[in-house]
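User: Could you go from structure to sequence for me? I need the amino acid at each position, not a summary. Structure tokens:
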């Protein structure tokens, strides 16, 4: 299947505190984009040490979801199914031929972001947001009723979130 490039700037982050559904959202987006013929890479920042690609890990789930590349990094190593550590920009080079790269984490980066909203409040600079994603429908509805430039979605509305991403990157 021929891949469909989104743009040269095809990188975006999914940010949120622990247990807000980042991995589930990323896996569902990977599956959806993959089923449409997009090649997708995922880069996961891990603040702790990790073991790469075994059942029960996030990177294993991304691979199972259809990610063309699954990359995870910490302060001492990075893995594309190999050991070592490299600068984030170098990791992006491994995904240069992919249509879409989703980064889990990096809330302080300049990359566009999807924020998984929690009770702890906003994490990301509003200027970098593509959209906000809520785990419960009441908070999502309340935010959608407010005026504002940032779209809000429920985490199960994958089609709308995907549409927002495509609109952000100017893809039909």
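Assistant: Here is the amino acid at each position, in order:
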């Amino acid at each position: 299947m021929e891949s469909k490039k989104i743009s040269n700037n095809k990188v975006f982050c999914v940010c949120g505190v622990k247990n807000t559904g980042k991995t589930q959202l990323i896996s569902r987006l990977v599956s959806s984009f993959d089923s449409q013929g997009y090649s997708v890479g995922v880069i996961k920042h891990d603040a702790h040490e990790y073991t790469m690609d075994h059942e029960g890990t996030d990177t294993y789930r991304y691979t199972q979801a259809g990610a063309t590349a699954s990359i995870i990094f910490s302060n001492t190593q990075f893995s594309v199914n190999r050991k070592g550590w490299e600068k984030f920009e170098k990791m992006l080079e491994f995904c240069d031929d992919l249509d879409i790269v989703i980064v889990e984490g990096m809330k302080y980066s300049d990359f566009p972001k999807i924020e998984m909203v929690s009770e702890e409040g906003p994490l990301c600079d509003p200027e970098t947001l593509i959209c906000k994603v809520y785990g419960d429908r009441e908070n999502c509805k309340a935010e959608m009723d407010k005026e504002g430039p940032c779209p809000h979605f429920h985490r199960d509305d994958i089609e709308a979130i995907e549409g927002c991403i495509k609109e952000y990157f100017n893809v039909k």
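One structural detail worth keeping in mind: Helices lie at 22-35, 58-65, 88-94, 137-144, 158-168.
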